[in-house]
Amino acid sequence: MKGPEVHLSISFVCLLYVLKLAVAVSNPNNNGNLVLPNKNSTSLNTSFQILPTSPSSSNLYWPLESQSAIPNPDTNNILVLPPNTSTLTTGQISCSGRLYGRNFRLASCLQIYELMSADRGVRTFGQRGTGAYEAPLPFRYLSADGLCAIDISHAAGVVSDSVAPGDLREAARVLINICVQGKPSEGGLMTRLGVNGGLALRVVRYKPSVTCGLPNSGPPWITCAHILDNMPADSQRRVFGPEGWQNTSVPLPLSYTTAQRRCGLVVDGTEPGDVSDATDWYKVWAAANAVNYMCVHGAKRGVSVGLGERGLLYVELKDVAQPDTVANASIAIS
Question: Are the beta carbons of 159 and 127 closer than 8 angstroms?
Fold first, then answer.
C-alpha cells in the first residue's frame, strides 16, 4: 500500500535542539536503561520573586495528554521576572500533581534544562499547520530517560507568538525550582509567556514504553527531527486500522520518511494480522519524541509500544537505508 506523497518544509526549530544536544548513554547490556549526568539542585537559584500560588480546581488547564490550547489565566499568582529578560515579562505559575505528575526525578528535569537553548534571539512559535514558524507547536524537550518533559504550547485564541528561547529556559528553571523541587514534588504550568503573553510552558511526568536497538542502528538524528516538526499533533480521537475497515480514519501501516530517505517513522499494530485501535496524533507524536530522545540521539533505532485505548499500536523510528526498512512509506517530508 502506497499513499500520496506530501512534501513539507524543514523547520528552523532544529536549532533549538542542536545548540545544546544531550546524548543518551546506554549501559553495556543494551537494555534501554539510560545513564544521566550527575546534577545538583544548587544549580537553581531563587532570584525570582513569586507570590503564593493556590490554583483553583475550577481553573482550566491544558490536559496532560492533549495538544489543546491553554486557556488564558486569571490575574492571580503572578511571577515577577528579572529585568534582563526581553520577551518574558510576567507569568502565572500553577503546580499540580494531579494534572502534571508527581514525584519527579530532579536529575531528569535538570538535564532538560541544560539541553534548552540560552539564545536571546527572538523566534516565532506557532500552531503547526497554520503557517510557517521557526518553531511549530506543540514543542517538547524530553530527558534521556524519558521521565521528565518540558512542553511549549499556545494559549486559547492565540495561534502564534514570539519569544527568546533563553527566556523559555529561564521559565523552565523557575518551574523546576518551585514545583519539581517543592514539597510535594509536582509538575507545573506557567502561562502568559512571550511578547504578547500567548505562550505557555509546563513541566510534566512522562511514562515511556521505549526499547532501543543496537548501537549504530538508528537514522541520522536531524532527519527524524524534520518528521517530528511536521507530522500532525492534534488531540482529536482517531481510529487507526486497516484501510477499508469501518470507522478507520488512519490506514495502517502508516509511515513517514524524509526526502533523503533515511529516517522512517512507522505506526502499526503490535499483533499479527489486522489490528484496529483508537488514539490521537498527539500521543503518537509524544511517543515518537520519546524514541527520538531516548534512542535516536544515541544512534539507535527504537520503538514505543502500548499506544491506543487497547494498547495495540506501536511507533518506530528506524534508518530506511538499513535492512528491514520502511516498506510502505506513504508520506515524504523534505
Answer: yes
Return the SS3 of 68: coil
Q: How far is residue 95 CA from its own chain's centroid?
A: 19
Question: For residues 266-300, b (16+ Cβ closer than 10 Å) or e, as one string?
Answer: bbbbbeeeebbbbbbbbbbbbbbbbbbbbbbbbbb
Count, in order, helices (H) and strands (E) of the chain: 6, 21
- This model's pTM is above 0.90: no
What is the gyration radius of the CA atoms in the chain, in angstroms? 19
User: Which residues are 34's β-sheet partners?
Assistant: 26
Q: Comparing C-alpha atoms, which of 178, 151, 199, 166 is closest to residue 79? A: 178
Contact (Cβ atoms closer than 8 angstroms) between residue 270 and residue 310: no
How do the pLDDT tens digits run along the chain, 334 residues long? 333 333 333 444 444 544 334 333 333 223 332 222 222 322 222 223 233 333 332 222 233 333 333 333 333 333 333 434 444 456 788 999 999 999 999 999 999 999 899 999 999 999 888 888 888 999 999 999 999 999 999 888 888 999 999 999 999 999 999 999 998 999 999 998 999 889 999 999 999 999 999 999 999 888 898 899 889 998 899 999 999 898 999 999 999 987 777 899 999 998 888 899 999 999 999 999 999 999 999 999 999 999 999 999 999 999 988 876 444 434 444 4
